[in-house]
């Protein structure tokens, strides 16, 4: 299993101080950066083939990886046009998407409970999406809508009249088997070829889901991670919430887990 972590964006909405800008995955919470947390959690889950798609200040990410001297060495793929959409980052990683085996496609700017990785990697080859039913309403969360166990929508805006029985926020971590990952790579290539490189990669994943609704060829599992702490870092307020609310929850869970093993 291979993890592809999208870390190319500039994070403009974070509004970092002039001269102090850095990729969001290098933000530190507690004793580790988001990047290092990803690596530790993935290794603990048995995933040690990791590909970072970088762009903005890629050299800083490379320096962080060198500083922590991670083994086995991670792969870096650079999206030189990182000011465009994340669909281009997925397209840039097309070789890693299509070289065989299941892949995990993950946003880099997420602080999360390691328990979120467990259902993502569990079992044999599969397509899997994560849903958190406890989410704040509004235009920012990417909503995942499910009807009878089938994902029918993945967007910030849900069309009026859409039929579904479950709605939640997509965590931004996906798992695809070899066939589905190849099809997603094809969809992303079409986005780029038709002048839609500025789109977020969730739109390409959405196309894949809707394609399946119309002509089922890929079975998708939905793993419910409601209750597991996590936050995507987009704005300065997210940084504060991550430090003040989410990190203490994660530390408490880690202490509880450690005490339970004694």
From TrEMBL:
Recorded superkingdom: Bacteria
UniProt keyword terms in alphabetical order: Magnesium, Nucleotidyltransferase, Transferase
UniProt-recorded Gene Ontology molecular function terms: nucleotidyltransferase activity
Gene3D superfamilies, A to Z: Spore Coat Polysaccharide Biosynthesis Protein SpsA, Chain A
InterPro entries linked to this entry: GlmU-like (IPR050065), MobA-like_NTP_Trfase (IPR025877), Nucleotide-diphossugar_trans (IPR029044)
PANTHER family registered for this protein in UniProt: N-ACETYLMURAMATE ALPHA-1-PHOSPHATE URIDYLYLTRANSFERASE, NUCLEOTIDYL TRANSFERASE
Record's protein name: Sugar nucleotidyltransferase-like protein
